[in-house]
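**Protein record**
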Amino acid sequence: MKDKLDKFAKFEKLLRIKFKNKSLLKSALTHKSANLTTNNEKLEFLGDRVLGLVISKKLFDLYPDESEGVLDKRFANLVKKETCCEIAVDLNIQNFIISGNKKQITKSDKKILSDCCEAFLGAIFIDKGFGFVNNYILNLWKSKLAKSNITILDPKTKLQEYSLKNFKKLPKYLLVDCTGPKHNPIYKMSVSIIGSKSFVGQGNSKQQAEQDGANKLISYINI
């Protein structure tokens, strides 16, 4: 027990945070493989929402003249699992996670690390309040926010720009099929541009299916 307490104390010292409720920190660092009932899943759920609110508000303030679509692309890149994993590694969270598995958690355990990062943020929110976690997140994400002006184009936008530049025409999307129940439909959409064969994408909405199809086409023509 003393080793675990020492472990938590080291983590607090590393992060310069002193938790009033130590059990919150323990829960945030506990993977479900170690404890099926008391683990970080619910804190991860909360932390994901807290992170989303902080980052979306910051982007709203930083880019007042940008469209919702562009802001959404910046947001998605900043809160995605890969980004949370990078933050977790920066904090050395892998050295403090409580796991039921015998193997040490490493940088390659990306889902575990990203989930733990979000759970940690949720724990800070409960223990310290929104003002504290807001500032803490903005400090952790500072360099990534500074680079958020680099917008990664989604497949549909990338294909559209390519088609307009080379053929002066938009890609052609057609509904192929829609199956499944109303609450969980599966759409199939075909997409093609001049000189290409059609590729069929699939998703739970027409938009998702179009993105999937566009991604297949741009991979085929290697753009």
About this structure: The chain has a mean pLDDT of 90. Residues 58 and 135 are 11 Å apart (CA to CA). The first strand starts at residue 172 and ends at 179. The two ends are 55 Å apart (CA to CA).
